[in-house]
Amino acid sequence: QVCAQLCRRPCYCPWVPPRCPPGSPLVLDGCGCCKICARRLGEPCDFLHVCDQSQGLVCDYSSASTGTGATCNFEDDEEGCEVNGRVYREGEVFQPSCKIQCQCLDGGFNCIPLCQEDVRLPTPDCPYPRRVEIPGKCCPEWICEAQDQHLLRDARAVSPLLRFPCQEWGTEWSACSATCGVGFATRVSNQNRYCRLETQRRLCMVRPCPALPAAFPA
Length: 218
What we know:
By secondary structure, the protein is mostly beta strands. It has four domains: 76 residues, Omega-AgatoxinV, CATH 4.10.40; 33 residues, Complement Module, domain 1, CATH 2.10.70; 26 residues, no CATH class; 38 residues, TSP-1 type 1 repeat, CATH 2.20.100.10. A hairpin with an 8-residue loop joins strand 10 and strand 11. May play an important role in modulating bone turnover. Promotes the adhesion of osteoblast cells and inhibits the binding of fibrinogen to integrin receptors. In addition, inhibits osteocalcin production.
């Protein structure tokens, strides 16, 4: 009876199919008639406006009795998370970019950096270290510049290159700024080319953060 009321034959569809947002494929509507954009996780749905089955979503009518209408949800109340328009399953590990890795947990996601944020100090065999982006590689790398290149670049700087021995000094690294997840540790040190006191920082993580409840997605 529902099909007879909502589905008309023959089909009358727009000449141009709709343009869908990222992560929402074109699918047939509930009548199997016209192309529509599949509804994503948490979006409203009904008999005609179907959910994205390729992501394991079904139209969940359990909340319809409260007056909020049906929404797309995982089958059998399976948890998941959506990042940049793509849905990931519970426990799935993914990389939004080559520099970060995330895991879907309880409707949210935790991420850790894949590139080291270490600080390389000058050494006798590498007096002028510099971090640069390498074509074809994701993470920046440290390189050792020749002295003539270093002096040429420093000629344009405000302060001249030190010409006297520098006694190195620095504090211990501070505690991580975040009790969970990715944070920063800082220290004050003069271990730089001008022997000036400066604040240095690096990434740190004490432990992964507990996942947010499903009602409060990250």
